[in-house]
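chain below, 163 aa
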Amino acid sequence: MIRKPKIDVILPITPKPKGRPRMSRKGHAYTPAETRKWEGQCCAILSQHTPPEPLEGPLILDVLLVLPRPGYMQKRDKHGKLKHDPGLVWKPNKPDTSNLIKSLEDACSMARWWKDDCQVTCGLSMKAYAEIDGDARIEVMVSEAGDTPESIWMTTRAQRGSR
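prediction:
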């Protein structure tokens, strides 16, 4: 099944993980200042793409999180050949993908993309290093779930050749 995204946008911002909640001396939990600052910056960009009304119902959030490529991955061997693929390269280390998604979902909620981030019921998330000359960014697609969970799951299984 092909879904038409309600929102399809590329955000020119480096993904940041959701900071761990901190406790005040009085025992109140709060979000760290660095996380609040990033979520505010992200919200400002997201707000340019806010739908006229917040999206309702179950939603699918597909995200490509592209982080800056480290210097060692841009080096060439003695023959001038790149040691690593020049395109996107998987980033199988910290920060956790789930923490990157949490901060994005909170920024989307602040930008009123939806009524509540609990509406996000499924989606694909990928974390990678940028291309050789590419920039850090977040690519986001939000679609209405529409089909039943079983239908979406079976379609996913079929696409991946499972069972």
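Residues 7-159 form a domain with the 60s Ribosomal Protein L30; Chain: A; fold (CATH 3.30.1330.70). The chain has a mean pLDDT of 91.
thats it, cya
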